[in-house]
Specification:
The chain is an alpha/beta fold and 559 residues long. The protein has 23 helices and 13 strands. The chain has helices at 14-27, 31-44, 49-61, 65-78, 83-95, 99-112, 116-128, 132-145, 152-159, 167-181, 213-222, 245-254, 266-275, 293-296, 365-369, 385-397, 413-422, 439-445, 462-469, 486-494, 504-515, 518-534, 541-557; strands spanning 200-206, 229-235, 258-260, 280-283, 303-306, 321-324, 340-343, 373-376, 402-406, 431-434, 451-453, 474-477, 500-501. The protein has a seven-stranded parallel sheet. Strand 12 (474-477), helix 20 and strand 13 form a beta-alpha-beta unit. It is globular and about 75 Å long.
């Protein structure tokens, strides 16, 4: 549910009193009573905009979104000054996936009342609409007014990874967050036992100990440690082990070392971590939902690391190391990270699914259809207009080819219209749109493509790894930052550097060359899955991580 804004009436008329009674009932969760009170107010004053918009929220909270949208639009017609009504209209439209309506309402709201609330609404909808470049300046306006804003700060850091920002620009934004949110009190020393050869206590902090894209990456490490690592799991968001098999696996491996940080202050969480005598504390979320970077700024463990879940750096000098590789973070860029970069074989790893049996087909879709099928299955928000125009250039160069898009976002007509607008001369029957399915079916759908087109500026994350696991080759553009280099990192580890483009022109040339070489596509389809599994992206990866931990530990012990 969206964070709708229930509005108070300004006056003391009889209708206003009914509205106040309605608000009391609504806040108490008595929605039928609230609906009745608001309707009483409207019997007295039919044009009461606040009673009408609060009634719209009741409908939205009752899962009656269509009725809510109709009602809030009526409220807007009754009023031309209350930006809060436009905010609620925008949020209801967003929840209903009417992005055009949401954008229009949010823009009206900000024009009426340019405050933090209206700016936050517009910025979040712009990001969902695939317009991160427009969202970032708005988040910065909010932070200029309220540097500690709990959503604008991390959102600005995250949304910037959806653009072509450089590491220097990313660090500057992270420093803004750090200056406003870092713990500035005294930091206690760490009396950890400095026995070099003993097992190391490693604490993992995440809100994603569940079926989530981040967990699909980091589970390959955290669930497979040798007896030289004693893992602790610090969960920052609620979990449902009875409904989520992956949560149950995390809890089974953790046993008595499972910790729930939900509802705990940073001070309480720090005390728990110190009591557990954690040697290395690992952030798996960064500036994403469930991240607890303010906890890390208290330095609850002697060694602190970030990686995998949101492997982009944090801007926190209390975090000592960033697990990456020379492809994701070039040597000349390392000065633009608050952490010391530690090189692994790949910035990410992958754990193949075990809950269902996947079958692999070595037959190209081309042989069934008689034309090339390109596929792009990563999140819609990761594709810039330049990316879409590059895809159009490829389709122009490969006659009769089709491009299949697949994501939850394509249930929104807005998303389809945006793609079509970027490719006005491409016949509509060459562009195929599929909505989200189960994870198992999504994995199988990758094999409907002859060649994957990795999006940019933000490339596919776990999706790229899944596609390689399913044996489908891809083209990727080497991005300006780690968010646009995940696929390039994995392909380099596999020895497939000729699939990595340096710019948009190179991207088109590589895709066209590969698409026109049917014997090559047929051959690689038979071997790519096995090559990926045998590559350093998977094989031996956890041992490399443990070796890195051991080096960090020995370095600290010798201080």
């Amino acid at each position: 549910m969206q964070p709708y804004v229930i509005m108070q009436p300004p006056g003391g008329e009889q209708a206003d009193e009914w509205v106040r009674l309605g608000i009391d009932a609504q806040v108490a969760g008595k929605l039928p009573d609230a609906q009745r009170m608001y309707q009483k107010a409207l019997q007295i004053t039919p044009q009461h905009p606040i009673a009408t918009q609060n009634l719209a929220i009741v409908f939205a909270q009752s899962n009656l979104l269509n009725e809510a949208l109709l009602t809030v639009e009526r409220a807007s017609m009754m009023d031309g000054v209350l930006g809060g009504i436009q905010v609620n209209w925008a949020l209801m439209a967003l929840e209903a996936d009417h992005i055009d309506v949401a954008l229009a309402a949010a823009r009206r709201g900000m024009a009426m009342a340019p405050n933090i609330q209206t700016r936050m609404t517009l910025a979040s909808i712009l990001s969902t609409a695939g317009l991160p470049d427009q969202a970032v300046p708005i988040y910065r306006e909010i932070l200029a007014e309220d540097s500690k804003h709990p959503q604008a700060g991390p959102n600005a850091c995250f949304v910037l990874t959806l653009t072509d920002a450089t590491p220097k620009e990313l660090l500057a934004q992270r420093k803004i967050w750090y200056a406003a949110n870092a713990y500035t009190g005294p930091k206690a020393p760490h009396p950890n036992d400095k026995t070099l050869a003993r097992p190391i206590r490693v604490g993992y902090v995440s809100g994603d100990f569940k079926h989530h894209s981040a967990a699909i990456i980091f589970q390959s490490v955290v669930l497979k440690h040798s007896d030289q690592i004693v893992p602790y799991f610090y969960s920052t968001l609620p979990v449902e082990p009875e409904q989520d098999g992956l949560t149950k696996r995390f809890q089974a491996v953790a046993g008595e070392r499972w910790r729930n940080l939900v509802g705990l202050t940073d001070e309480q969480a720090e005390a728990m971590i110190r009591q557990d005598q954690i040697d290395i504390l690992v952030d798996l979320a960064g500036h994403t939902n469930g991240g607890r970077l303010t906890l890390f700024t208290r330095k609850p463990a002697p060694i602190q690391v970030t990686g995998w879940g949101f492997a982009h750096g944090t801007g926190c000098p209390e975090i000592d190391y960033f697990l990456a590789d020379p492809v994701a973070v070039k040597t000349e860029e390392r000065q633009d990270y608050a952490e010391t970069v530690v090189d692994l074989p790949c910035i990410v790893t992958y754990a193949p699914p075990t809950e269902w049996l996947l079958t692999f087909t070595s037959s190209l879709p081309y042989h069934r259809h008689g034309f090339i099928t390109f596929g792009t299955f990563a999140r819609y928000e990761k594709m810039s207009d330049t990316c879409l125009q590059t895809f159009a250039d490829i389709l122009r160069r490969v006659p009769n080819s089709t491009l299949q898009f697949k994501d939850h976002a394509y249930r929104r007509p807005y998303s389809i219209r945006r793609v079509l607008a970027a490719m006005p001369d491409i016949a509509k029957d060459r562009l195929l749109f599929s909505i989200a399915t189960s994870h198992e079916d999504h994995m199988r759908s990758y094999q409907q493509a002859d060649l994957i087109l990795d999006p940019f500026p933000h490339g596919g994350g776990v999706v790229s790894l899944e596609q390689l696991y399913m044996g489908v080759p891809m083209v990727t553009r080497y991005g300006t930052q780690p968010a646009g280099r995940t696929a390039a990192s994995a392909l380099t580890a596999m020895g497939k550097t000729d699939w990595i483009a340096k710019d948009e022109k190179d991207y088109v040339e590589i895709a066209v060359r590969m698409a026109n070489d049917i014997p090559f596509l047929s051959k690689i389809r038979k071997t790519l899955h096995d090559e990926f599994v045998a590559s350093p992206v998977i094989t031996g990866y956890t041992a490399q991580v443990e070796a890195a931990y051991r080096t960090m530990w020995e370095t600290w012990c010798k201080k």
